[in-house]
Amino acid sequence: MVHIFSPSTGRLPRKRIGTAASVLTLAAVLALSGCASVPPPDGAMSQAQAQLQAARDAGAADYAPVDLGFAQDKFQQAQAAMAARKYDLAADLAEEASADAMLARTKARLGAARAEIQSKLEENNRVRTQNEEAKAEAQQHAAQQQAALATQQAAQQAGGGAPAPAGSAALPAQEPLPDLPAPSSSTLNAPLPQQDQGQPGQGFQNVPEPSQQPNGGQP
Q: Which residues does the annotated region (Disordered) include (predicted)?
């Protein structure tokens, strides 16, 4: 049995070459049209910029500098992608920048709240210390007054005198009584009034002198 092989020419038909070129051209056109159909992510870029500003206003530069730096870097990359018309990449970077900015703002608020609480605690401790010092000073002053009073009382007792009452110092000194005039001699030599003999029992009676008794008689 004899097989007869036809010689290969090694070239593609012109019809197939034209078809392949048409397919490649169509693919390129579709790719270009697909890229042109993606709109610029203006909304995502605006939101990322607003979140960055809110984070700065919340104090993220002081309380969350690392997260704020990440957000700023992502936003700058998104701007570069927008300039290169890589809108898909720009949209993704803008969303990441917004997320990092929101995280930075949250950490900043938390840090500010902690700082305020710490400040209030320190103020309360300062006021408490002042009150304790004032109380201790008042107690010391009272103890000094008591000690001085005890020393004064001990000195008065050692001197032999009873401690003066609290209100004695406030009493005014009494003036001496005036001298009364002496009675005259005529008043002293005046006879005493005689009592009526007919009315015994009234007042005192004069006792007769011994010269008036009868001689030789016994009473």
A: 121-219
Q: How many residues are listed for the chain in this entry?
A: 219
Instruction: Give the structural domain span for 70.
Output: 41-114
| pLDDT (mean) for 61-87 | 96
212: which DSSP letter?
A: G
Task: Indicate if the pLDDT at residue 20 is higher than 90.
Answer: no
Q: Are 38 and 88 in contact (CB under 8 A)?
A: yes
Distances (CA, A) of 18 to 25, 26, 97, 106, 171: 11, 12, 48, 61, 139
Residue 179 lies in a domain: no
| Residue 185 is assigned to a structural domain of this protein | no
The number of distinct structural domains making up the chain is 1
As to burial, measured by CB atoms within 10 angstroms (0-12 exposed, 13-18 middle, 19+ buried), residue 199 is exposed
- Tell me the backbone φ, ψ of residue 78, rounded to 5 degrees: -65, -40
pTM: 0.48
Report residue 191 as tokens: 């006879």
Q: For the segment 92-133, what is each residue's pLDDT rounded down to a tens digit?
A: 999 999 999 999 999 999 999 999 999 999 999 999 999 999
Q: How far, CA to CA in Å, does 55 sit from each of 52, 160, 179?
A: 5, 85, 104
**Largest pairwise CA distance in the chain:** 229
What is d(CA 94, CA 92) in angstroms, rounded to the nearest whole number? 5
